[in-house]
Amino acid sequence: MDAQTIIAKRIARELKTDMLVNLGIGIPTKVANFIPKDVKVFFQSENGLIGTGPIPEEGMAHPLLTDAGGNPVTALPGASTFDSAMSFGLIRGGHVDVTVLGALQVDGSGLLANWMIPGKMVPGMGGAMDLVTGAKRVIIAMQHTAKGKPKIVESCTLPLTSVRPIDMLVSEMAVITFKDGKATLQETGPGVTAEQVVAATAAKLVLPEKIPEMPL
Amino acid sequence: MKTISEVDAVALIPDGATLMIGGFMGVGTPERLVDELVRQGKRNLTVIANDTALPGRGIGKLVDANLVTRTIASHIGLNPETQKQMIAGKMAVDLVPQGTLIERIRAGGCGLGGVLTPTGIGTVVEEGKQKVEVNGKKYLVEVALRADFALVNAFMADYLGNLAYVLTSRNFNPVMVMAAETTMVCAEHIVPVGLIAPDHVITPAPLVDYLIRNR
Fold first, then answer.
1. Which pTM value belongs to this model?
2. Residues of B numbered 49-88 whose beta carbons fall under 8 angstroms of chain A's beta carbons: which are they?
3. Structure ipTM
4. For the segment A83-118, what is each residue's pLDDT rounded down to a tens digit?
5. Which one of A25, A35, A186, B121 is separated from B153 by 20 to 30 angstroms, measured CA to CA?
6. Which residues of chain A lie closer than 8 angstroms to B175, CB-CB?
7. CATH no. for residue A155?
8. Sign of the torsion angle spanned by Cα atoms A31, B80, B13, B32
């Protein structure tokens, strides 16, 4: 199983029936592919849709029905549409149960940087700051390292997305939670040891007595 | 409400105007008004919009034609031309969190001076802004935005100017309608009064100044 599939499959297990869920672009989008058939979640697209469905069949796309990246999607039975003020009222107002987002860096207390690299990449924060500030639960989906360097660091050197810490981080190597501001290794990836996770992480990790392999 | 051609509508917009333009990655953007802005070469524009779409699409066409000197948006990452002009110093870009941007526009249209939001606290977004504490929680004071013209797109407009939207093309449009001195609307369909039922009207007719005629 490749890294992205491991991450997406593990996060899919966190989603339960009736939750309102917002998925970011990249690995987070793939989470939708691994939700069990009997689990019915509502996916929000922040451009104004609850009930986002899969990519339409060829010839069935509508130019006015897209995801937040502007790509064609479908709407499932029970879907609803609304304007951007409502959409971000849902997000900022704590009505979104879970958001799954990518990350550039996460620090040892769970603070996230995921929207710019000064001088290199300045795309704008889009909805990221509102999502991290307002969603009930923030889950980060990311590869554990970038070009061999840890992405989980002692302190973020990139501009922060929010001062609200994330709740959970899932990489191909580990599940880490941040309760009480402490990065705690909860699970390891398939065939990965806790020592390997520690070696690939630049922040202090709390290691509980039992660290099971992540269920997939 | 007056009906008008896009040529005459855009002729009312002076160089240097501040425009709110609806749409999200070009979806729900009044393309005919954008095309006409390019044809008439309106310069030195300030554009308030969610994003600048892609080169060759929606607001991206204004950027391609070098007509925009300032952009207030939440995301420009999918338009390399906007980034190029920003880095070259040809266009000033204010990046605003999307939820803050829409609320600043909403405030502008609703007679509010601004909004209090927790988004951006403790980040670069808070620089230069007033902070207030309400019930022990910190908020940024984000001031209202208004524009000279709102250029919006609707799915249906009736002969009086009542508007309805579909799917994800609603986005910023009904909020911007309220926040400009003059509102110009392109509709995919212009229909008889009554075809949009009162409960399905999203933008009431008195908010629309100009409805662009079909060709």
1. 0.96
2. 50-51, 53-54, 73-78, 83, 86
3. 0.96
4. 999 999 999 999 999 999 999 999 999 999 999 999
5. A25
6. 83-85
7. 3.40.1080.10
8. negative
